[in-house]
Write a structure and sequence with these properties.
mainly alpha; Protein Binding, DinI Protein, Chain A; two-stranded parallel sheet; 2 strands
């Protein structure tokens, strides 16, 4: 009797295992590398070009301001031994104020740039997610992951998604404003 129960249990386990394998074959999983989309998709490249054009003037002004501050500091170091105490203190105070103003402008620039990057890349991500849904529905995927510790390359659909995004978004022309 015990032998018969063991055989039935073994058959039941094999049946369950076989059913599980069959279900696993029907369950389709895909993976999308969002970092790669941000690097390679036309919409992401267009966003980067747009940001570069939008912020290049302010960035150049900051670089110029930093260079003039450095030049003024070097001049002060050369002239310091010949300056009177009051002149030296006055120039130090003036340079300190200029440096504080430079740091403030640089912080504002970085905050503005980061805010705009977030806005632009949120739009890119929304478009990408829409395309991922389209690919998933068209190819009957059950689950699409965007982050994972390890993914077998056979599940990576990033290339399909990038091609679909690029077919909807023209290649950004160098020097175009996007407006």
């Amino acid at each position: 009797m015990k032998m018969l129960t063991t055989k039935r249990l073994l058959i039941a386990l094999l049946t369950i295992a076989a059913t599980g394998v069959a279900l696993a074959d029907e369950f389709r999983i895909g993976y999308v590398n969002t970092e790669r989309i941000f690097r390679e998709a036309n919409s992401a490249i267009a966003a980067q070009v747009k940001l570069q054009q939008e912020f290049s003037k302010r960035e150049k002004e900051l670089v110029d301001l930093g260079n003039s501050l450095k030049t003024a500091s070097e001049k002060f170091e050369r002239d310091a031994p010949t300056l009177s105490e009051t002149q030296r203190i006055s120039r130090q105070r003036q340079m300190s104020d200029q440096d504080r103003e430079f740091q403030r402008k640089r912080r504002e620039f970085q905050e503005d740039l980061n805010a705009r990057k977030n806005e632009e890349f949120q739009l890119v991500l929304e478009r990408a997610n829409k395309v991922v849904r389209q690919v998933a529905e068209a190819e009957k995927y059950d689950l699409i992951l965007q982050e994972a510790v390890y993914i077998n390359p056979k599940h990576d659909i990033t290339e399909k998604v990038i091609k679909a995004i690029n077919s909807q978004t023209p290649v950004p022309a160098a020097g175009s404003t996007g407006k």
